[in-house]
Amino acid sequence: MKNLLLSTAIVAATALPGFAQEYTPDPNAQPGGMITVTYKDDVATLDPAIGYDWQNWSMIKSLFDGLMDYVPGTTELRPGLASSYEISDDGTVFTFTLRDGVLFHNGRAMTAQDVKYSLDRVTDPETQSPGAGFFASIAGYDAVTNGEADSLAGVEVVDDMTVRITLSRPDATFLHVMALNFASIVPKEAVDEFGTDFGKNPVGTGAFKLGEWTIGQRLVFEKNADYWRDGVPYLDGVTFEVGQEPIVALLRLQQGEVDVPGDGIPPAKFQEVMSDPAQAARVVEGGQLHTGYITLNVGMAPLDQLPVREAINMAINKERITQIINGRAVPATQPLPPTMPGYTDGFEGYAFDVAAAQAKLAEAGLADGFTTELYVMNTDPNPRIAQAIQQDLKAIGVDVEIRSLAQANVIEAGGAGQAPMIWSGGMAWIADFPDPSNFYGPILGCAGAGEGGWNWSKFCNEDIDAMAIAADSMTDPAAPERLEMWSDVYMQVMEQAPWVPVFNEQRYTMKSERMGGDDALYVDPVSIPVNYDYVYVTE
């Protein structure tokens, strides 16, 4: 999306070129019915300020709304809980007018005060939100994170239906940030009532509301009959069954008992599925802005030494790893995927070279190697990829103990800085929005390196951070000089080697014969993995 921040003094959201006015209901949609979605692991939280993984992202998106939103199945911005907005000449003041008649699931009308409360909450250090850094451009953010203030000075309630947000600098990505789950609007009274259990008792304004949650068994979402968007959702509800092995889920889909296997097609069954025309017809493939990587915790010895990190980069046979997932990826050389603006063409990264890797270890005084741990999500094929990484590192004298855990436990260990190395598969980075900044702030920047953040390498370089801030302070997100600056950011990151970028993966999932809706909704780039608000059943 280009030119989100225009130079006119006042810009109404509905006038922006490329922005959808409102969603047109699918004429083929049949309202009603329930669907069943399976996952191996239970859900950690449904709190939009905290939830940040593949599994709960689309669930949270169906329970909550933000001021901005996306056209279903795309990365095109559209207004959400804001009916319109205005932007100042210098791109630093955003005035949002809220929609009338929006109700929380508890029946109370949403107001501008709820917007301020929600933004204050997500940036409050006590919340430990992994997305807090996204809001760093809002005036007063530093004072809140430093404990000098308890609310964002830049978020002002003008009246019940108007919020003014002032930035400390222009931010080319700000409207995208306001469409993230982290910017979802929540009611203070519900958070006060449930406290740290709000993630198990979510209250939002979304198309669905939580009807039941039996820990370790299932979650049931029910249609929000008072939803503010006309005509959706089409479904009466969604049942999420957890504790389901992906191979069992595929078998149940084949038997008509499951509508979407949330963990995707098991790699061991991929060729079998694709060779059967009846099953292949139900496969949905989509491109994604994705990078799978190994994080190297720069705060833990001996990974705190650059030559050691370089050695690990040189030791990994990326071509072999892509074969583990049936060739559904290409080897990566840098954090950005090839289709992302700012990608550095021609950069070869660290070549696979065992001898050079061994020399780097010797340079670090570790010619005899060392012992470390690799954390990995326990869903296939990730443990097998971890074993391949283990074998590669064994070849240079590094003994790796694999810790195969549920997704939530890996994320917790990474956020706490307890994991020396993490294979990100199953949790690997897929862009929240199509801008190069999104691969930096949360997972490589200083803001994401704090407790609970997703910068599991704990890498923090203030000079690179300053360059990233300068790039985002340009008002035109597509400006060539901005994209060149982002290219420089990632090249400098690679010089410090806090990651091993491994591959860029395509996305595959399946749906039952009775599922309706555009295929893009099943590989939705911002409602990963499925946009439940707009899919339907045909029987």
Automatic annotation (TrEMBL):
Compartments, as annotated in UniProt: Periplasm
Keyword annotations of the record: Signal, Transport
Signal peptide region: 1-20
Residue ranges of domain Solute-binding protein family in the record: 76-450
Gene3D superfamilies reported in the protein's UniProt record: Dipeptide-binding Protein, Domain 3 (3.10.105.10), Periplasmic binding protein-like II (3.40.190.10)
Tagged with keyword Transport: yes
Domain of life: Bacteria
Record CDD domains: PBP2_NikA_DppA_OppA_like
The keyword DNA repair is annotated on this UniProt entry: no
Family indicated by similarity: Belongs to the bacterial solute-binding protein 5 family.
The protein's name: ABC transporter substrate-binding protein
Source organism (scientific name): Loktanella gaetbuli
